[in-house]
Amino acid sequence: MKNHSSKKELMLLPILLVVILMCVAGHFLLQANFQDSNMVEYMLAALPFAMFGLVIVAFKMAAKSEKDEQSEQDK
Fold first, then answer.
1. Sign of torsion, CA 15 56 61 2?
2. Rounded distance, CA 66 to CA 54, Å?
3. How far apart are CA 13 and CA 19, in angstroms?
4. For the chain, what is the domain count?
5. Is 5 left (phi over 0), alpha (psi -120 to 50) or beta?
6. Would you say residue 4 lies in a domain?
7. Relative to the CA of 21, which of 7, 29, 52, 72 has its CA 20 to 30 Å away?
8. Residue 4 has pLDDT above 70, yes or no
């Protein structure tokens, strides 16, 4: 089993927190008093795509970290 650097794993926490905040904000904006706004409707429609983009960024960061760690072990 590999030992991972905790510093590199902690770099992904801000992305996780942003996605959690986006999810909570999306549920807040689904309230009845915000449903008449077209801008809110467009923002809510774009929310899953923004979350998906952040997940792709997190995967790329994790893959780069894994690759760097692998190259350090090979030396």
1. positive
2. 18
3. 10
4. 1
5. beta
6. no
7. 7
8. no
16 domain residue, yes or no: yes
Range of the domain at 49: 9-74
pLDDT digits (tens, 9 = 90+) for 46-70: 999 999 999 999 999 988 988 888 8
Angle between helix 38-74 and 13-29 (nearest 10): 170
- 58 part of a folded domain: yes
Q: How far apart are CA 73 and CA 69, in angstroms?
A: 6
| One-letter identity of residue 65 | S
Q: CA 17, CA 20: separation in Å to the nearest integer?
A: 5
Q: What H or E segment, with its residue span, contains residue 3?
A: none
Please, how many CA atoms are within 13 Å of residue 74, restricted to the half-sphere of its CB?
6
Cα–Cα distance for residue pair 73/71, rounded to 1 Å: 5
Compute the chain's Rg from CA coordinates: 18
